[in-house]
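Our collaborator T.R. sent over the components below with a one-line note: 'Predict the complex.' Nothing else. No constraints on interfaces, no templates requested, no preferences about which chain binds where. So this is a plain run: every listed entity goes in together, and whatever single assembly comes back becomes the starting point for the next discussion.
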Amino acid sequence: LFVIDAGVVSCHPNLANDIRAYFNHYTILSLVTEFILIPGGEIAKNNIKYLEKIFDAINHYGVDRHSYLAVIGGGAVLDLAGYAAATAHRGIRHIRIPTTVLSQNDSGMGVKNGINAYGKKNFIGTFCPPDGVFNDDQFLLTLSDRNWRAGISEAIKVSLIKDADFFHWIEINQPSLTKRDIKSMNYLVKRCAELHLDHIASGDAFERGSARPLDFGHWSAHKIEQLSNFEVLHGEAVAMGIALDTAYSLITRPFQKEQAYRIIDLLLAFGFDIDNPIAHITSTFCPLINGLTEFREHLGGKLTITILREIGEGMEIHHVSPFLLIKASDWLNQYCNHKLKIEKIGG
Amino acid sequence: LFVIDAGVVSCHPNLANDIRAYFNHYTILSLVTEFILIPGGEIAKNNIKYLEKIFDAINHYGVDRHSYLAVIGGGAVLDLAGYAAATAHRGIRHIRIPTTVLSQNDSGMGVKNGINAYGKKNFIGTFCPPDGVFNDDQFLLTLSDRNWRAGISEAIKVSLIKDADFFHWIEINQPSLTKRDIKSMNYLVKRCAELHLDHIASGDAFERGSARPLDFGHWSAHKIEQLSNFEVLHGEAVAMGIALDTAYSLITRPFQKEQAYRIIDLLLAFGFDIDNPIAHITSTFCPLINGLTEFREHLGGKLTITILREIGEGMEIHHVSPFLLIKASDWLNQYCNHKLKIEKIGG
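Returned assembly:
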């Protein structure tokens, strides 16, 4: 049974025929002829009717635990279909075919699925490894520039906490990545997916503890998405979150100014709107600060936030000062304005 | 956060105060003061509003992954609350306190949870081991005779496929079990739970294969429950299913007549209504036969049904003949009528 992101179908009009041709060739497999189309983006996870649509099809076509539910799409549709696959008949087999940079280099490789509820991201979900993940660069070619760029933020994130060499590689290759060079993108996707997978496989895959180092920059990102009514894409929100937590690392630790500049400069070079007012923290009443409580509540236990010791190495903290956050946000805002001025003069 | 079967509260009016007293004593723990009451029985799993009620409370009280959701109740409420715990925040900690014979000796010890959908039992659910299970015999004292008896069928079932000595013990202790001797019941519950747990821990806990030996007698039991609109209790349906599959074992294999008599006699001695017309298979159009297809579909792969080689040893078969099922049902019906006549003459 195929669940497909409606956005992907419109960009790849031959997709349905290609799938049918594949199954005509490999007759050992039998294909459910109806494809289940789901709109892409957070709407897929916000409205319960899309989950029901998938359950309906699983029931109607008698998809059982030895059958496969394959999903082709961006991260949100993957999360939704993964949740349906993990819970129908207590788990049917599941193949993910991610179609965006973000889902190929991050969520598609992971063990998480879920849907949103009570205005909270992934309030309901499970941990469940897929049976297979296929990353196909053909899908990346038709992405909008906005979606192409958005997913790069997760690669920057994982490089910052795990792999300084990879960060340096991204800095050098920023121009070719921006010019949509597919060879560079393939390397970025593969290295980022590797780093994510290594972390999951070696660590606390089911998150029994309170730490989640891969979520550097994410406490604010989740809240920014929600406050923007999901108009800010996840990857864009992560870029804003990285910038804010980089500034916080600078304000609270002996994190070198030059390293902070490099990070902010790279995000700006990609064109991330990290100075968007939605990410500004101007007072302790700022709703964005609630993102800290919600982040802690989702993981449970002690608040554990990852900031940077240096490029390539994260560190955990258990307290975040709202006043220093305001100071960090302020520093970031001034730095961005300063950079923009320089660019204007330069240009 | 406590989720409690409303039926248990009415039988144990001090329960809420006892829980509060416990948490007043152990102040290291903090108790959500509201108890979430759920009606007992399949209605809890059939209506989505009860699942939502638990999710609402988890959200409202900020229950997180390091908090515990404890549930006190029969199997249905346990299944429901277990599903909520397994999926809220992708899994919060979970303690089960089963209150019926059936849930103490079987489902409460297991790794399954779920709710019903599309008229199918456990269509949606997960495999998720609880953090703890407390079996307290105080809850058994207030059970109705019907519920006291119903759970005994799972002990008979597991003895038939795993442990001939245990079957013999049940035969000998049938009178004291029927007279509600709590010491005998405690032994029955413990041995049955042990056999279930050993099987789960050593075997295919997440049911990736097609076999499920613990489901001897269950392909028809699930369907009988559904056809009776859940007026037949699970344990009662299992007794009917055991009787039918015992008859099928006799009709299709060199299973000794004397062994079949012992099994049917024991079920009748406990007063199980195994000759109820709902369990009769009189033609190949009998809706009960669809239970085979639904059983296969739930597990996936090849149909795999456990029948008996002898008392204490199950065997797997992959084909069930509807014609021989009719014959088996017929034999069972005649045997029960014969037994009843003898009893009438005797009495």
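Summary for T.R.: The longest helix of chain A spans residues 322-346.
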